[in-house]
Amino acid sequence: xxxxxxxxxxxxxxxxxxxxxxxxxxxxxxxxxxxxxxxxxxxxxxxxxxxxxxxxxxxxxxxxxxxxxxxxxxxxxxxxxxxxxxxxxxxxxxxxxxxxxxxxxxxxxxxxxxxxxxxxxxxxxxxxxxxxxxxxxxxxxxxxxxxxxxxxxxxxxxxxxxxxxxxxxxxxxxxxxxxxxxxxxxxxxxxxxxxxxxxxxxxxxxxxxxxxxxxxxxxxxxxxxxxxxxxxxxxxxxxxxxxxxxxxxxxxxxxxxxxxxxxxxxxxxxxxxx
Length: 274
Hints:
By secondary structure, this protein is mainly alpha-helical. The protein contains 11 helices and 2 strands, in the order H-H-H-H-H-H-H-E-E-H-H-H-H. Strands 1-2 form a two-stranded antiparallel ribbon. Strand 1 (151-156) and strand 2 form a beta hairpin. The two termini are 30 Å apart. The relative contact order is 0.10.
């Protein structure tokens, strides 16, 4: 039986390489640049960069409120940054294209900030949290909410391929992070930030999807059931207008369309069928 994979383009060997979306590209560049700057500044100042921009008790003790956002762009090692950026690249593109850049940015920073808050609640005295993991786990939670049955292959220990559905992956990761957070098996990893970010991303994506469904239901209820429009009286939709609407969907998502733009797109679809 032939399967249909929306938004995915697989090569013959099954490896998916998405084309970069605008916001994901900017986030990747910022993270790489900040990593290079952090290494150089910390080398010259003995770690002052992390103290100022990493998330710590200074955020409420001394008013370093910028740390709620700045800590997301700091990474402790090249491997740490590489892992987060790979996840951002492979799943962030589909999420951005589905919900649009504005909602994607709000998702990313909401998950990151709430993930940091989750870490602060359980943080040890004098600890510093850095990394985009809270925001990235938020993307994982959102992906599981938006594409629950999408098959994902993970490389365990970077060698063993394990394929599972997105909702199963999110559930397994959430259970693992919760267990490690409660038992303190692994030190130096902000498990509470991972878990809080994932929950925030899942809830955010669920709310966005429900809002879109509610809008469509209300619109359909307002339309008369017997509203017959003769073919010769139907408005003519120009190809240029259709291209403009399709470009808007590609850049801002389906939710950005106005009621009139949706009607024009529907009319263009009817024109094509007739």
